[in-house]
Each structure stands twice: as C-alpha cells, then as structure tokens.
Write a structure and sequence with these properties.
Blueprint: E1 2-7, H1 15-28, E2 32-36, E3 51-54, E4 81-82, E5 91-92, H2 95-105, E6 109-114, H3 116-127, E7 132-136, H4 152-173, E8 176-181, H5 188-197, E9 201-203, H6 211-224, E10 229-234, E11 246-248, E12 256-257, H7 260-272, E13 276-280, H8 292-310, E14 316-321, E15 324-329, H9 330-333, H10 345-352
Parallel strand pairs: 1-2, 1-6, 6-7, 8-10, 8-13, 9-10
Antiparallel strand pairs: 2-3, 4-5, 11-12, 14-15
Length: 358
C-alpha cells in the first residue's frame, strides 16, 4: 500500500507526532508513505517536487516539535485554489488536476490531517473518488464526533501559564488584566484556561456577555475580596446585542477574529475607572512543543488512521471516544461545530467557583 499524508489549515502542536506515527506504523506494515508539501500544493503547483518520501529516518525525533515538517496553508482548498495568472486574489477550481496527479502517484489513498475546513475539503475529494481518512486537528477543540482534538491541551496549557503569570503583575499594580485567547467560535480554551489559571471573569462565544454585570462583578471583587482581577476573553465572544469582532476577511479563507479583549478592557476602564491593561496571546498558543498529552493523542490518532487504511475503511475520521479510539464518517464529523454545551459541568463549575461568565 502507498499512503499520502498532508496537513492543512492552521498548525496545531502534535502534527509532527501524527506524521511520525503514520510513517512508523505504515513502514512496519511494509507500506510506503509520501508527504504532500503545504496542504495540497505538492499535488498542484508544486507537483511533483512537493511530494516528500517519508521514512523512519525522516521522522526521527519530530514528535516533540511544534509546527509541521510538511508545511500547511489555510488558503489552499483545491476547489478555490489561489492562482497567479488570474490577477491578485484570483481563485480557481483545480480539483480535477489534483485527482489526475493523485492517480499518477499510484497512491491508494490520503491521510488528511486537519480541522473542520480541511475535513470539509477531504469529504469533497472523497466524493470525487479520492480515498481519504481524516485525522482531527485543531487547538480550538471544536470538532464534533471526537471528544478532544490534539493541539487543544498545548494551547490551553499555554493560556493557563500566561494567566498564572498575569496574577503577580495584576496584584502588584492593583489592575484588571484582560487576556484574549483563541478558539474561534468555541470557548474551550477560554473556559478551561480560566478554570485552571484561576481567572475571575471568563467571556465565551457560547454566552453573550453583559458589560454591566462584568463591571459589577469586578467592582465587587475589588471592594470585598482582592484589589486585582484577571479577565479571560475568547476571541469569538460578543456582548449582548453586539457582534463579533473580525480582524480580516479574505476570499477562500475563514475570517480572522480578534479585538474583543481590547474592547472589553477599554469598556471596563471607562465604566469603572479601574486601571486596566489588555493583551492578546495569539499565535503563541499554537507554537512550541506539544504537551505529552497532545503527543500521545496525536500518536494514537496517527496509528489508528493507518489501521483504518489497512482495513480499507476510507471516508472515516479517527475519533477519540474515551476510553476507546474509534472512528466516524468524515461527513458526520463536519456536520456541526462543537461549542461548549451550556449544561457542561465545566460551566457549572466556573459558576460554583464564583467566576463571572458575563
Ligand atoms: O483554528 C485555529 C486558530 O488558531 C483559531 O483559534 C484562530 O482564530 C485562527 O486559527 C487564526 O488563524 P490564522 O493563523 O489564519 O491567523
């Protein structure tokens, strides 16, 4: 068997661990593995030089590395592919060319490692006759049909550490520190980091916030508890009756959210007079070495994907349903996004601990 593997969308710590697990478990079965450079570029404008043979040697020691040795793009759908000869921003459907080049490689199928956008592309390629197995990746943890995606633990751990560091400076200056975290339309990173880091306010995309309530809870804390506070704001949070803050919008790419942390900080300062500062953790949450939990999860996903390929179970996505590593149809996995359910015990726990959810 000959397997192709690519990584698509925003990077997430653990991608290299998947690549290593896929390569080692495939090689042990006597399969060949070829990596595709930068999403689908290796099968399109970089074909054939963007096809990278993967061996035991080429994946040695990479499980602990962040990023992806294959490179990735989040504006590289073969159905809306950026082309240079159509003017700036021009996109074209190159999926037929992709299929032709895929056939020319003689590969049996593709292991597509990606988030909802990449898995949506994989499902469309599957319909066109390209056998695919999906591996769920995203720091946002917003994929349905799997309990957790790799990358989330690393991002959440980093955000937790940042909140911990903010405590001492907030306390020293008697300030409100507002920290904006990633997660797109899901509040997993914000909620878990707020719980783990001991934040006082957590604003999530799932619960529109009321600034009066946020300010009242901060004033109450300053007056009756401690004169400093940490506010965690998910980039996808929005005020009651307000809207999301979008930083950039580009054809063929998910819109980029951002700015809500600064907005909340300004409003807190204006309404309460408390000294307030804000910061955005941004891509630091995606960088660096994956946590051991993410490494193990990524390795388990990679090995499970090769088992599915060996059984010819194309069209499935590996899915962690604790305690079992299982699989679901890719179509099912992309049917809806997984935000934090309002009846999730972590939400109740935050309230029990006195964390204001806005
Ligand atoms: O989906 C992962 C993610 O890091 C989101 O949390 C964030 O909104 C987005 O990607 C940022 O994308 P980009 O890398 O294009 O700035």
């Amino acid at each position: 068997m000959h397997l192709l593997i690519n990584t698509g969308g925003g990077d997430a710590p653990g991608l290299n661990a998947v690549i290593r697990a896929v390569t080692l478990s495939a090689c042990r079965r006597g399969f060949r593995v070829t990596g595709i450079h930068r999403g689908y570029a290796g099968l399109l404008n970089e074909y054939p030089r963007g096809l990278i043979p993967l061996t035991r040697d080429s994946v040695r020691g990479i499980a602990e590395l962040g990023g992806t040795i294959l490179g990735t793009v989040n504006r590289g759908s073969p159905f809306q592919y950026p082309i240079t000869d159509g003017g700036p921003g021009a996109l074209s459907d190159l999926s037929d060319r992709l299929l032709e080049n895929f056939k020319a490689t003689g590969a049996d199928g593709l292991i597509a490692v990606g988030g909802d956008g990449s898995l949506r592309i994989a499902a469309r390629l599957m319909e066109k006759g390209l056998p695919v197995i999906g591996v769920p990746k995203t720091i946002d943890n917003d994929l349905a049909a799997t309990e957790v995606t790799f990358g989330f633990d690393t991002a959440m751990s980093f955000a937790t550490e940042a909140i911990g560091r903010l405590h001492s400076t907030a306390e020293a200056h008697s300030r409100v520190m507002v920290v904006e975290v990633m997660g797109r339309y899901a509040g997993w990173i914000a909620l878990y980091a707020a719980l783990a880091g001991g934040a006082n306010v957590a604003l999530l995309p799932e619960i529109d916030f009321d600034l009066d309530r946020v300010c009242a809870s901060l004033e109450h804390r300053f007056e009756t508890e401690r004169p400093f506070a940490i506010v965690v704001v998910a980039e996808g949070a929005k005020p009651c009756g307000g809207s999301l803050l979008v930083k950039a919008e580009e054809l063929g790419k998910e819109r980029t959210l951002g700015g809500m942390g600064a907005f909340v900080a300004e409003e807190i300062a204006r309404r309460t007079g408390l000294e307030t500062r804000s910061l955005v953790l941004g891509h630091l949450q995606r960088g660096g070495s994956p946590t051991p939990n993410d490494r193990v999860l990524a390795i388990r996903y990679g090995a499970a994907a090769v088992r599915l390929a060996a059984e010819g179970r194309w069209g499935q996505m590996v899915s962690y349903q604790p305690p079992r590593m299982s699989d679901v149809p890719i179509i099912e996995a992309i049917a809806h996004q997984r935000s934090v359910p309002l009846d999730h015990d972590a939400i109740q726990t935050a309230r029990d601990l006195g964390i204001c959810l806005g």
